Here is the input.
Amino acid sequence: MTNQFQSNMPIYLQLVNNFKHRIVSGELKAGSKLESVRELAISFEVNPNTMQRALAELERDGLVYADRTVGRFITDNKELIIKMREAVAQEIIGQFIQQMRSLGFSEREAMELFHKALEKEDSGNEQSK
Here is the structure.
């Protein structure tokens, strides 16, 4: 799994965000077992200590838990996953708003562009079916 990390944010935080996205999107299923720290570090091409730090952060957030004898698992707390999904969405929306404002768009103009993009996306999806 080749990853391109950005230099403006610590790698462990980028790993945390990657796992959060994969958990809330359902790519990583609730209750599923994660690979070992070493295996994950190899697949993400990072130092095992960096991966350990990211997993520790996910444990603090409650998205991952460790069973000392078996390994680490994705939480099966569906309410927590739903709340985290909404928090991730709010963060994305906040970034969108901030970027649109920095470009000088009013709220109304930004919403119009957003709706046009949605319509274009929807019509593209309809044509590909």
